[in-house]
Amino acid sequence: MNKPDSTLFSSIPKDASDVLNSFDELVQHTLPLNSRQLYQVPENVRKLSHLLTDDRPARRVGYMNEAAALSAYIRYFMWWNLVRLTPLFAGFAGQAGALSQLKDDDVCLDCGSGPLTVPIALWLGCPELRKKKLTWYCLDLSQTALSQGEDLYTAVAARTAASTPDQQLWKIIRVKGAVGTEIKKKAAFISCANMFNELFWNAEQPLEQLVKKYSAQILSYAEPAAAVLLIEPGVPRAARFVSLFRDALIRKGFSVLAPCPHAGACPMDGRKGGKWCHFVLETDDAPSHLKKLSAAAGIPKDRASLSFVFAAKSSDAAGVPADTKKAAPEQTKQLKLRVVSDAISLHNKTTGRYSCSEMGLTLAIAPENALSSGDLVFAEAQKKPDLDRKSGAVKINL
Ligand SMILES: C[S@@+](CC[C@H](N)C(=O)[O-])C[C@H]1O[C@@H](n2cnc3c(N)ncnc32)[C@H](O)[C@@H]1O
Question: Ligand 1: does its nearest atom lie under 6 Å from the Cβ of 51?
């Protein structure tokens, strides 16, 4: 089979991997803990992990204002988030044009910014953006998280100054408040990562109703031609939220840039018992100190998964993901597949991976190890689809 046309997670710049590999040192240098506090980090990570996953009702809304929790978040969760978001953003830089269209003096908004994880991952993953004079409004309930995040951003920028001599330090405007708080300027780019699950998890209203409310709030911040990036953990309920948010964006005239290879109905929408759209980044190459901290905290994390949608309102994208635009006109009979799931062993040393295409749920059949979660591949569209009996997916041999 042909090599995948592109993949979601790209290789990252050398200076970015240097920062990620020694992020613990950068944090300790910027926000030092004494040896007693350092000793307590694994235990605090373990406690916070429960509060963020299986013990959500016990979490206080302002948990990021508590020193031990914030320090555990920065030293563990933020680090993991940077490890998975930086290659994702590096992939966007090459594929989804909306980022490269950001220009000097544009305003960006990061909602639920915490310690500025998204701006820092964009800085690391997209060196071209470092050269643009951007203003970032960073919105969060926790002023302390924002202020420590700003210190970390400045420390990261100091580390990349030698490799990007013409970099422009972004202007950071910290806004303490809940999503919906008024922001003075309209944004050309809006991001929200790992925030909405804190709002919808224990909510009584149906997700559909919540998405209506929150998408309206997010879009009220947007310039007429803005890009919106929503990222949540790769679990079914969060993926359902993301899929509904995608529908809301499409209804408002946005084109999905990634990960969807089409603008039709989402075939992995996370409804109960069904498949959910999420992507897994193998973590073999994760920083060794981060893996050690995972082990010390008793959280074996060998994979990092996420669900996301990146969409933009621009006249030329028109429902076609930017990374597929290079398909020549004669390739229009080809089907674009976004590989989503893990491999399932089939006969003859082939494997199947559930994928997404304009035909709906698709099972991409390929030699072992030929595909990875997130790959985008082109295939011949078959006139008479052959359906997988178990899942109803359209089988495509690559
Ligand atoms: C899990 S952290 C994510 C931080 C960062 N975006 C990241 O991906 O690492 C969630 C953040 O959302 C913030 N948050 C929770 N509810 C919020 C709300 N209603 N409005 C604004 N921020 C909120 C929390 O204070 C916390 O900093």
Answer: no
Q: Tell which wins on pLDDT, 369 or 87.
A: 87
DSSP structural state of residue 191: E
Closest atom, ligand 1, to C-alpha of 231: 8
* Alpha carbon distance 42, 49 (integer Å): 10
Query: Are the CB atoms for 90 and 281 separated by under 8 Å?
Result: no
CATH code reported for the domain at 14-324: 3.40.50.150
For residues 219 and 317, give the distance between their C-alpha atoms in angstroms, rounded to a whole number.
Answer: 18
pTM of the shown model? 0.93
CA–CA separation, 184 and 135 (whole Å)? 12
Question: Model confidence over 129-162: pLDDT tens digits?
Answer: 999 999 999 999 999 999 999 999 999 999 999 9
Q: Sorting pLDDT into bands at 50, 70 and 90, what band is 331?
A: very low
**What is the C-alpha separation between 207 and 155, in angstroms, rounded?**
39
- Among 27-31, 41-45, 120-124, 321-325, which stretch is predicted with the lowest mean pLDDT? 321-325
Q: How many CB atoms lie within 10 A of CB 363?
A: 23
- Report CA(295)–ligand 1 centroid distance (Å): 25
Q: What is the CB-side half-sphere exposure of residue 157 using CA atoms within 13 A? A: 21
User: How many Å lie between the centroid of ligand 1 and the Cα of residue 122?
Assistant: 17
CA of residue 284 to ligand 1 center, whole Å: 28
| Ligand 1 centroid from CA 285, angstroms | 27
Tens of pLDDT, residue by residue over 161-219, are 999 999 999 999 999 999 999 999 999 999 999 999 999 988 889 999 999 999 999 99
Ligand 1 pocket test, candidate residues 66, 195, 197, 235, most atoms within 8 A of CB: 195
Chain center to CA of 66:
26
- For ligand 1, whether the C-beta of 64 sits within 6 Å is yes
Say if residues 394 and 386 touch (Cβ distance below 8 Å). Answer: yes
**Model confidence at 323: pLDDT above 70:** no
CA 221 to each of CA 171, 174, 255: distance values in angstroms, whole numbers, following the listed order = 18, 16, 18
Atom 1, ligand 1: residue with shortest CA distance: 194
Estimate the share of the chain in helix, then strand, then coil, as percent rounded to the nearest 5. 40, 25, 40
How is the chain split into domains, by residue range?
Answer: 14-324, 329-397
CB of 114 closer than 6 A to ligand 1? yes
2 has pLDDT over 70: no
